[in-house]
Amino acid sequence: FEVLYIERGNTGIAKDSNHVYRGDKIMADLDAKTFIRLERNYFKDKNNVYHYKFGFGKLDFLDVNSFEVLGGLEGSYVKDKNFVYQDLEALEKIESADPRTFNPDN
Question: What is the pTM of this model?
């Protein structure tokens, strides 16, 4: 059993070899064998990318195989093979950014 994230009120996200849990509820659609926590409250399994911000949600518009969490001087950035996003109140696509060359520190 592994605790991956603690929310306010001591509810958290955890997993064992068979299930992913939010508090004491099984999150049935998640693959426990491949579910991992990334940086800045992002998670992924073999099927999708997820984020915990104002609740736990699936980001099904992101490509799970190429998804990366980036740093940045002006906040958090993420990207996949298609787009770069700035993580503000919601993920905002940066239309002018090329995901192959984007560097958030420049």
Answer: 0.87
